[in-house]
């Protein structure tokens, strides 16, 4: 199961976090996210402690804060949604910066921002310390349905190919004097999306035929068998276990 070149999210390193088996890190991140989601939104201090735990992991992994913050930009749509909640959610009103906002909406916005940011940060740390190929092997080790692993593998392998195809189509449009400047040009963009879908589908058929001609029967061979020792599992479980302790305190204090 190959993965081509390293993804831009991955940061090469030799830290203890980098050396952990991928399936250990996947379980740790999933456990951490589940704990964060289960934390009551009123426990503000708990989310601060979660952020400290992630900062500690980033320090051990030698992932710079700037590298992490730049990749958190992916959650901007969620931030925009959260900022609208105080104005659209019905309920008791209060004054904030001279504006009348909903109290339930404020709590909802905080809930989305805090838990979403922590979840995205944990995912970025996982991607920063684990190669894509290793992630696929980790999913396979965790007994994820083989078909889903294969789909993920092809998505990662051909994502850049499809992006390149779209870039060439965009260059072809611009070379013919086309620039999308308004609603009138949406039809052209829709046709571009349709053409890209057809080309991707045809490429998928050609790849499948090539695989079948080389003996593909529905499963891909496992090149490397990823294993983990008890010590590695113990290191990986430190993050979700500590987070669980914070969560339990959040429900009791």
TrEMBL record:
CDD domains: EcfT. InterPro entries: ABC/ECF_trnsptr_transmembrane, ECF_CbiQ, ECF_transporter_component. It is found in: Cell membrane. Keywords: Cell membrane, Membrane, Transmembrane, Transmembrane helix. The keyword Phosphoprotein does not apply. The keyword Cytoplasm does not apply. The chain crosses the membrane at residues 43-60, 72-89, 109-127, 233-251. It is a multi-pass membrane protein. This is Cobalt ECF transporter T component CbiQ. It comes from Streptomyces flavovirens. The gene is cbiQ.
